[in-house]
Amino acid sequence: MVSAAVAPRRRAVLLVANAADPYSRALRVGRSLAAAGYEVEIAATSGATSPRSATDGPLRIVRYEPSGAWARFAHERRRPAGREPIGRGRIERLRGLPDLAVRAIAWPAHVRGWWRTLHRELPPADLYHAFGILTVPVALALARDARRRGREGRTVYDVIDVVLESNNVERMPAPLLRLHRWRERRWVAATDAVVTVNEEIADHLVRAWQLRDRPTVLLNCQPRWTPGVPRPDLIRSATGIPPERQIVLFLGRLGRDRGLDEAAEAVVRLDDAALVLIGFGPWAERLRARDAEPRFAGRHVTLPAVHPDDVPSWTAAADASIIAVPGRSLNQRLSTPNKFWESLTAGTPVVVGRDLAVMRRIVEEAGLGAVADPADPTDLERALRTILDRPPSEREEMRERCLRITREIYNWETAVEPYLDLVTTMVPPR
What we know:
The protein has helices at about 25-35, 90-95, 95-105, 110-120, 135-150, 175-190, 200-210, 235-240, 260-270, 285-290, 310-315, 330-335, 340-345, 355-365, 375-390, 390-410, 410-425, and strands at about 10-15, 40-45, 55, 60-65, 125-130, 155-160, 195, 215, 245-255, 275-280, 300-305, 320-325, 350-355, 370. By secondary structure, the protein is of the alpha/beta class.
């Protein structure tokens, strides 16, 4: 009697250069791969308050500590508390110059210690999905090792942001920026496939990298969602905002270049509205302090981030969402962030910055909100009024348009199909 060898289950590793606590795009991709028969691990970086490992349904999330000589670059140098003696700050800055040079030339130095740990501890896989530029070099190295160990070892570079065309590199010296762009093109040439978040970024990548194969577009859409009757009102339950006060919502990272000051000024000028911010980031304490200022009391409320699965239920309470991001960089102008799709999925109209070309096109073509100058609180106020001052029947029609377009076109169930077809050709079922 001859026993047949049982092939190991296909394994996918999703590489995330943050603590993934949580990271919504990785959750959606991972769940779809698990439903297609993969064993899925999200390999993330360590976080100050995040557990070493966790599970999310069929997904295993493991956070790897940086190790080796590069580990010291994993965290930015912190200034000591209190007042520095005269001259001490200058001395510390001079001592830090070698580190700055290493960070610039060996970019991304801050994740190289994490890469080293992945090489030592991460079991091999058939598919490596690299979320962003910080993960693609290690994905390529891990895939080479996986092939030597009998796995398929295929790589997907998910261009979630056009990082080297963003405001993050606006102060980088031009020769250094050219070097990093050359390095990225080499990584792209070595990957098996490129995925990105919308058609416009795909067009840009074809031109910039002279690609023969167009990137597969995997929109950042949300799963289809239907609000209950009555519509959930979690924001008012959590904040005590009265029923007659309209809610303008901001979702996502709380920091610079998000138009948060301008949005706060625009909303406080409305007759009876409150700006509610749900998210996390370096400005969180600053924004919570504004909550208590007399001029903004009851009109400006900052709440912690909620799990991606719960976002539609929170967003549905808002009368409008605002994305007042300035379009200074190509990356900003072509962006379609989670908050945009989350708002539409919940049936919430959106005010977007006038230079955010992709979101502006969708909003204007389908009548899903309004457009404004994100640097001008007066213009943001005008755009918000075009939504909030409509008769109730017209506002309900706009909500229904948002829900309908996400049910029919912009939903994860539809968006993920080309991606699953792609990975099936790369790693056929056993």
